[in-house]
Description:
Layout: E1 2-11, E2 17-27, E3 30-35, H1 42-49, E4 57-62, E5 65-66, H2 71-77, E6 78-81, H3 93-104, H4 109-119, H5 135-147, E7 153-157, H6 165-178, E8 183-188, H7 191-197, E9 200-205, E10 208-213, H8 215-221, E11 226-230, E12 242-249, E13 252-258, E14 267-268, H9 273-283
Parallel strand pairs: 3-8, 3-9, 6-7, 7-8
Antiparallel strand pairs: 1-2, 1-4, 4-5, 9-10, 11-13, 11-14, 12-13
Bound molecules: adenosine-5'-triphosphate.
Adenosine-5'-triphosphate binds at residues 12, 14, 16, 18, 36, 38-44, 83.
Domain ABC transporter: 3-231
GO molecular function: ATP binding; ATP hydrolysis activity
InterPro entries: AAA+_ATPase, ABC_transporter-like_ATP-bd, ABC_transporter-like_CS, P-loop_NTPase
Amino acid sequence: MNITLTDLNMTYANGKQALRNISFDMQSPNLTGLLGPNGAGKSTLMKLLVSELLPTSGGIQLNGSPLNKVEKQLKSALGYLPQSFGLYDELTVWQFLDYMSALKGIKNSKEAIRKVIEETNLTAKYKARIRTLSGGQRQRVGIAQALLGNPELLIFDEPTVGLDPEERINFRNLFSRTAEDKIVLLSTHIIEDIQSVCNRLIVMNEGRLLFDGTPEELIGLAYGHVGILEEQVDNNEKQGYQITSRINTTRGVICRIVAEVLPAFAQPVEPTLEDAYMYRISKGVGLR
Ligand SMILES: Nc1ncnc2c1ncn2[C@@H]1O[C@H](COP(=O)(O)OP(=O)(O)OP(=O)(O)O)[C@@H](O)[C@H]1O
C-alpha cells in the first residue's frame, strides 16, 4: 500500500488555515510519528487521510488513485482512532467491538474480537460495561476497535493519552509488531512514544511541515544548538535562546536551552530527541 499527499491545503469555514502545502508519502511497512504542538494541524491531517474532511486544495492518492475515487477500498483497509472517541457507554466491551465489526463488515468477527481484546489487554474486562471503565481502559477499547480485522492502514490520533507508563510500553511494542507489514501513522505529544518505535518522524507546526526524516536525522540537526547553563543569568543575557527544561541540582538550578547560536556562557551538550524537536520548532518555517 502507498499513500501520497500532494500540496494539501485545508482552510476551515471560519477562515482558519489549518494545513499549508503539505506533501509527503508513506509506503508499507512504515511506522511514522506525527509530532507538533497544539493546533499544529495533526488532527486535521488525519481527518483528511481518513476522508472525514476534504482538502481545500491538493490531493491524496491511495495506491495511485485519488482518495475520493477509492473510498470503499480505504474504508476496508482502515483502522482509525480519532482524538475524541464516543464509546457506547451502556454496551459491554465485547458488545461494542461486535457492533464495530458489523459496521466494518468483518466476517469471522468472534475470532477477530478475541484477538484484539487479547492484544489490548482487555481480557479481564470484556464483559464490563464501557461506562465502568477507567480512562486508560476506554482508550484501550478505542485502540482495539481500530485494530479489528487487521487493517493495512492504521491512523491513531494520540493513542497513548490516558495510558499509564506500563501500558504505554505495552502499546509501543504492539505498534512495532503491528507495523511490520502496514502503514501506521500516530500522533502524540509524548516524544518517548515516538523515539522507541517510529522509524520516521514528521514534525508540524502552524499547519506546515517542518521536518520529515528519521529520529537520528532530527537529532543530527540539533548538534551545536543545545546547551546547559546555570539559572542565575541576568535578564539582559536571556535573549536568543529558549529554555526547554530546568533541573534542580545541589549546585542550584541548571537550565537546558536550545539556540541558533549558543551563548558563550552555555556548555554545549548532546541533544536528545526532545531537544531536537524543540530546536526544530523554535527555528520555524522551512523544511530541514
Ligand atoms: N472544525 C474546525 N473549525 C475551525 N477551526 C478548526 C477546526 N478544527 C480545528 N481547527 C483549527 O485548526 C488548527 C489545527 O487544529 P488541529 O486540531 O488539526 O491541530 P492538532 O495539531 O491536532 O492540535 P491538538 O494537538 O491540540 O489536537 C487549530 O488552530 C484549530 O483551532
